[in-house]
Each structure stands twice: as C-alpha cells, then as structure tokens.
Amino acid sequence: MQTRTLGSTGPAVSALGLGAMGMSGAYGAADRAESVATVHAALEAGVTLIDTGDFYAVGHNELLLAEALRGRNRDDYLLSVKFGMLVSPGQHYGGHDCRPEAVKNFLAHSLTRLGVDHIDIYRPARLDPAVPIEETVGAIKEMIDAGYVRHLGLSEVDAATIRRAHAVHPVADLQIEYSLISRAVEADVLPTLRELGIGLTAYGVLGRGLISGHWSAGHSAGPGDMRGFSPRFSDENVEHNLALVAALRRVAEAKGCTVAQLAIAWVAARGEDIVPLVGARTRERLAEALPALEVELTADDLAEIEKAVPAGAARGDRYPSGFMDSLGVGN
Prior knowledge:
Layout: E1 3-5, E2 12-14, E3 17-19, H1 32-44, E4 49-53, H2 60-69, E5 78-83, E6 85-88, E7 92-96, H3 100-114, E8 119-124, H4 133-145, E9 149-155, H5 159-168, E10 171-177, H6 189-196, E11 199-203, H7 235-255, H8 259-268, E12 274-278, H9 283-289, H10 299-308, H11 321-324
Parallel strand pairs: 3-4, 3-12, 4-5, 5-8, 8-9, 9-10, 10-11, 11-12
Antiparallel strand pairs: 1-2, 6-7
Helix pairs in contact: 1-2, 3-4, 4-5, 5-6, 7-10
C-alpha cells in the first residue's frame, strides 16, 4: 500500500482511505457482518485511514467500527472523526453545535463508543455559524494538548475559515467532497491548502455511486437511501449525469480499468497531498477500488477524461437545498 502525508504537520496514512458512513444505512440497509469483514479486508490490504462521524446513524457507525477494530493494534490504524451535527430521534438533523464545551462532550462519547484512548484526526463536520471557528479549534487544541486527540482536521469550509483555524493551531487536513463531478474546491480552497501546507481527504470520489459505473438508468434508491433526496439522482438530472458516465466508461475501457477505478485514480492524480476516501461497504467494492492506485494516468488520459466529464458538467446540486447553505464551497 502506498502512503501519503496529510499536509506538513499531519500523519502518514495509506494513499486510499476507507469511509465508513455507508455501513450504517446511509445508502439503505447494510449487512453488519459484511461491513466488519470489509473493515478487516481494508486493514489487511494496508488501508490505515478510517473515517467516521459520531452522528452517522446516531453512534451506530462508531460502535460498528469498535467491533471491527477490537483486538487490533491501535498503531495499525488512524481514526478520523467528525462531530458537531445535532440529531433527534428518527435521525432528523437539527443544526450544529461546535461550542467548546460541546466539542469536549462529543469527544468523550466518541472515545467511549470507539473503545480507544485517542482520536487521530478530530474535525467539526460543518462550520457552526453561531460559534467562531477560533473557539472550536481552541477546544480541540486543548484536547490535543491533553492527549485525547492527535491532529486537527476541518470539513467543508471555505478558504477564509481555513486560514482562521490554521492561525490557532496547525490543520492537518480538510475533508471535502472532490470528484470529477464536484470540483468547486479547485478555485480557492485547494490553492489555500497548498499555500498553508494542509492536506486534503476527498470524500464522494464516486459521487455516492453515481459515477461508479454501477448505477444505471431506472435504478431507484431504496428505503433509507439518502440518494433518494439527492438532486443529482433525481429524474430530471440522472439521465444527463449517466451520459457523462457512459463517456467516462469509454475512456476506462481503453485504459483497461473500470469506471470506478478511473474516477478514483483521477482524484489521486490531482496531487500527492490528496487522499481519496472510498465508501466501500462490501469486500467486492473494496477489491475493485484498491487497484485504482496502480492506474497511472498520462497527460493524454487526463485530457480524455476532461473531455468526457468537463468541470461543471454534472446537473443538480451535490446536496439537497437545505444542506447546501452549510457548505463552504458549492458543487
């Protein structure tokens, strides 16, 4: 497994990370035993970075990871945890809370659910508009100084917020959606990260399955699948977006890889400071994703990919309208 370093102050991690959200029902029912087996397979393949959020199915995801990681050497994996999103019974989101006292409260619960004595990268899931980022980061810094957290991360914030946070404590990485169909990060955020020596962990590299090569026309999201509310999967947009995937498939076939492998390889090729997170929830999907790191893209390949899926070509926002306001950058 190749490794990459998250920025100038962050840890060395596997060049491909595992995003665990889908193992807790975000995309419909998931098999617990298969989820655990997938985490084991990832570790055995050399994946060291595992990403979760304390609000994923209201703690279910952290408890699942605790089961999957039980008995493993703590030095063999790194946990990236997001916090701050408020959830009520029925899993209805109710805003954000990133006050310093809330930071420490959320952290205490995560440590207990995960069964660990520290979190490797701790990050607010979104900017809390009611709390200056300096206060949130200051609380995380206190937890770093106390040994409960190793590194500070951010998620889905703009360039100005990154600068303010970094002035309080060095930021290891920004987690943000980045894929062939979500490239807003390239305008201001990515240059800022590189100026400051901050890494990027990219989620949604397969557009929640839309550009994986496995989503087809007429396919509909099942019960509990968040894609049923996603504008890019809506009836008025999905046909157009799948036409982009068809063009990408032709490039992949010429390259001798799958569509998913090509899409992951494209993100990985954007820079050594970028680590793609793959939301595989089965061993089959993980096995498909891992060889993406071996796909070498030439200048001609990149040009063909750009022709197939130009920047801004996707139709529909990457989140429902009610969630777009909480993002530091757009699509």
